[in-house]
Amino acid sequence: MEHNLAVGLDIGTTKIVAMIGRKNEYGKVEILGIGKSKSLGVHRGVVNNITQTIQSIQQAVQEAEVSAEMKIEGVTVGIAGQHIRSLQHSDYITRPNSEHVIDDEDIDRLINQVHKLVMLPGEEIIHVLPQEYKVDGQAEIKEPIGMYGGRLEANFHVVVGQVSSIRNIGRCVQSAGLNLEGITLEPLASANAVLSQEEKEAGVALIDIGGGTTDLAIFRDGIIRHTAVIPFGGNVITEDIKEGCSIIEKQAELLKIKFGSAWPGENKDNEIVSIPGLRGREPKEITLKNLSKIIHARVVEIVEQVYVEIKNYGHEEQKKKLIAGIVLTGGGSQLKHLKQLVEYITGMDTRIGYPNEHLAGDSDDDITSPLYATAVGLVLDGLKRQERKKLEQDESAVEETEEEKPIEDIKEQPVKERRSFLDKLTERVKDFLDNAE
């Protein structure tokens, strides 16, 4: 595959999306092809039928290959699901020599120490995100590299997930004939696609309402502060409509999309939809008021659960205020009047997030729909990963030539990004799959 191309694979509960993108000369991302298939075999973000998931992945990938007229080899995959939880943890190291400045190795040592935390059986740390550092008791340091100090400590946001679920996703990707190039947390991918840097600085909560799960990511001062996955999404609303109106799922889904609203006050009592009966039975008549009452009850439950998580983060403290409020994305964010309901429940400014933050100006309206936020985020992540690889290759080439050069000629190197733990996790999942065959 070309160097500046990346493929995002969003394995969701309702749909699987494969998206091919590349950077254009202005640094924006052009989407070259997209394929989607109905997701069979995924429940609440977790794979529960490997064979069906593999088929759905292949179908989506084929469609993307046809629309972009190219072959897909490697993909960046998102992980979400009800097994993901996060916790706060602080840790410290004592440095043997405080005469030397703090460098990458010290920080890696500190992060590796966090990985030794004892987890529940079957759980593994996916993500360790440093919040802020302290050097010799001096607090609120954003970047300790280059400072002197004997004791280095930090607060961490630790994301934990079920290792078997992650391996199952890796297995599906490999069995579909694809290379696993990277793994990313889905709330982080969606956040990259729809949030601006200003919002991340000011403080913002991203709520991604998918089919099976609702993902939350909170940013403040440009750093991710809190993540959560709530095991409800649009599908529960459809289920409720199906039960409440005694109709089949397909009709319930259509009703929700066409006539659904999260605010029951706006429908008149006499607005009625007629639904054809099954096999010659009488058609059913459903009032829109009832429909939106059913939807309202479930949406309120989802939003309140998310709001509990935002409170857990502590947004009521002055220092942790989320000035940019809430951004809603994902397929579920397209429900009519949802924005108003969220503002009403949380009292926070709310907008709907479209993934056009980094896309080229002439992108299809289809692609900039909140439905594809995660897929766009995964493409961005894949492109970033490739740039890092290229930098590392260039660096090693530079190091080889540097050996012969006098010191004065050596130019300052761009600071290389620390390898994220997700890269290491990706490698471990790959190793596991290679050895498991």
TrEMBL record:
Residues 394-406 have a biased composition (Acidic residues). CDD domains: ASKHA_NBD_FtsA. Residues 389-413 are annotated as: Disordered. Keywords: Cell cycle, Cell division, Cell membrane, Membrane. It is a peripheral membrane protein. Residues 6-194 form the SHS2 domain. GO terms for cellular component: cell division site; cytoplasmic side of plasma membrane. It holds the Pfam family FtsA. GO terms for biological process: FtsZ-dependent cytokinesis. InterPro entries: ATPase_NBD, Cell_div_FtsA, FtsA/MreB, SHS2_FtsA. Self-interacts. Interacts with FtsZ. Cell division protein that is involved in the assembly of the Z ring. May serve as a membrane anchor for the Z ring. Belongs to the FtsA/MreB family. This is Cell division protein FtsA. It comes from Flavivirga rizhaonensis.
